[in-house]
């Protein structure tokens, strides 16, 4: 009987995981191609930033009219995993795709992981309409969709699977989710990179410091700082979102006014470094010293952009924040600049999302396994010192209750 059940389980999830991987990987590929086009156009026609308020109004109006619960984004996926209420609407996929491309096209500061994760989760949940499955299997489908979306947008299949399992934590790890998550992540990454020919940014840590006691001790202050930076990012995101909602009652006016203020910032500062994903700056952080305030500027501009109602993700801006913060720490922490940038890259991400295992694996996939010890310790310390903060308001943080009890 166990053999028969096991065979049915493998057969079912080989099929469903393949389908989810194909859908999420293809969606990410189309998204990345469109995002590159939008970014290239903006950088070649900087005058378009003046129309950011108009772009914001269009995004806000569209979500207000047809978005319904899709406006909750990643938090909707988490809520459905914790307590099944209603299907993830298919409209989430085109809405978040359109909203994110508009945000980057006109000059907002945002990321891409949120878009890929939401598209992956939304498309995966549609499978339930075509192939009726149990409530438990639907949750596994959602985890697989998130896994495929994350893996394909960053080119990190191992981290994508672990992120989905760790991020969508419900108090216990369902062993039945493990194979579908890894299988969907692998398929999605393969489809995006090999099937569609969409590549990913390469990062390099050319020198890893020896694992001496003194060098390892230096990870502690760095990890603490990365955790506090992750906490600042999360708290700032919630602050701006709450402020815009309290001060501006008509939703389309929030990104309109936010877009106007961002456009004024760009005009006054005469710099576009902190717009969009900021990938060129992230690459620079591994190569040469940068202004110490880069991480603060990116944190402020991204949390303001998303808080105003523009669409996109937080993860790539968190990479920017972490890499540039690690870069600035190289002036007083005697570790290689690129290593500190890499530690910050994943450390701040760990602190803001409470996913230290996924962040560690992602760092090793991107930078090489030689830096694994430094990355793992930095991610763990950042996770602990970020407290009960998270960029996802619906994330289950009960696993941190013993360290940081809930406030009564």
UniProtKB/TrEMBL annotation:
<dbReference type="GO" id="GO:0015108">
    <property type="term" value="F:chloride transmembrane transporter activity"/>
</dbReference>
<dbReference type="InterPro" id="IPR014743">
    <property type="entry name" value="Cl-channel_core"/>
</dbReference>
<feature type="transmembrane region" description="Helical">
    <location>
        <begin position="366"/>
        <end position="385"/>
    </location>
</feature>
<feature type="transmembrane region" description="Helical">
    <location>
        <begin position="177"/>
        <end position="196"/>
    </location>
</feature>
<dbReference type="InterPro" id="IPR050368">
    <property type="entry name" value="ClC-type_chloride_channel"/>
</dbReference>
<feature type="transmembrane region" description="Helical">
    <location>
        <begin position="12"/>
        <end position="34"/>
    </location>
</feature>
<protein>
    <submittedName>
        <fullName>H+/Cl-antiporter ClcA</fullName>
    </submittedName>
</protein>
<dbReference type="Pfam" id="PF00654">
    <property type="entry name" value="Voltage_CLC"/>
</dbReference>
<feature type="transmembrane region" description="Helical">
    <location>
        <begin position="332"/>
        <end position="354"/>
    </location>
</feature>
<keyword id="KW-1133">Transmembrane helix</keyword>
<feature type="transmembrane region" description="Helical">
    <location>
        <begin position="216"/>
        <end position="234"/>
    </location>
</feature>
<feature type="transmembrane region" description="Helical">
    <location>
        <begin position="255"/>
        <end position="277"/>
    </location>
</feature>
<feature type="transmembrane region" description="Helical">
    <location>
        <begin position="46"/>
        <end position="63"/>
    </location>
</feature>
<keyword id="KW-0812">Transmembrane</keyword>
<feature type="transmembrane region" description="Helical">
    <location>
        <begin position="140"/>
        <end position="165"/>
    </location>
</feature>
<keyword id="KW-0472">Membrane</keyword>
<dbReference type="InterPro" id="IPR001807">
    <property type="entry name" value="ClC"/>
</dbReference>
<dbReference type="GO" id="GO:0016020">
    <property type="term" value="C:membrane"/>
</dbReference>
């Amino acid at each position: 009987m166990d053999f028969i059940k096991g065979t049915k389980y493998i057969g079912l999830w080989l099929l469903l995981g393949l389908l989810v991987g194909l859908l999420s990987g293809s969606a990410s590929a189309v998204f990345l191609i469109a995002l590159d086009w939008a970014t290239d156009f903006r950088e070649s026609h900087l005058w378009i930033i003046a129309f950011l308020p108009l772009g914001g109004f269009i995004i806000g109006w569209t979500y207000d009219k047809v978005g319904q619960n899709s406006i909750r984004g990643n938090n909707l996926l988490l809520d459905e995993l914790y307590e099944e209420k209603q299907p993830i609407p298919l409209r989430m996929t085109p809405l978040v795709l359109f909203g994110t491309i508009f945000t980057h096209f006109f000059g907002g500061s945002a990321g891409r992981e949120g878009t890929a994760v939401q598209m992956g989760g939304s498309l995966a949940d549609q499978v339930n309409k075509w192939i009726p499955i149990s409530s438990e299997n639907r949750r596994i489908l959602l985890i697989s969709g998130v896994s495929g979306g994350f893996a394909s947008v960053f080119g990190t299949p191992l981290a994508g699977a672990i992120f989905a399992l760790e991020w969508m934590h419900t108090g216990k790890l369902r062993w039945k989710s493990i194979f579908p998550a890894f299988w969907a992540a692998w398929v999605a990454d393969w489809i995006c990179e090999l099937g569609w020919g969409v590549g990913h940014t390469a990062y390099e840590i050319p020198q890893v410091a020896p694992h001496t006691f003194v060098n390892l001790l230096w990870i502690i202050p760095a990890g603490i700082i990365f955790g506090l930076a992750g906490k600042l990012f999360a708290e700032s995101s919630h602050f701006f979102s709450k402020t815009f909602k309290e001060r501006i009652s008509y939703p389309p006016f929030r990104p309109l006014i936010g877009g106007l203020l961002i456009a004024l910032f760009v005009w006054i500062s005469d710099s576009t470094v902190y717009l969009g994903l900021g990938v060129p700056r992230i690459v620079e952080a591994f190569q040469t010293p940068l202004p110490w305030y880069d991480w603060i500027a990116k944190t402020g501009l991204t949390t303001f952009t998303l808080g105003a109602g523009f669409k996109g993700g937080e993860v790539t801006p968190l990479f920017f924040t972490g890499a540039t913060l690690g870069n600035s720490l190289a002036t007083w922490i005697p570790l290689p600049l690129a290593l500190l940038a890499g530690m910050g890259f994943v450390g701040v991400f760990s602190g803001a999302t409470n996913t230290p295992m996924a962040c560690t694996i992602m760092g090793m996939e991107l930078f090489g396994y030689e830096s694994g010890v430094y990355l793992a310790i930095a991610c763990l310390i950042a996770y602990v010192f970020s407290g009960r903060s998270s960029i996802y308001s619906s994330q289950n943080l009960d696993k941190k209750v013993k360290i940081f009890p809930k406030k009564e």
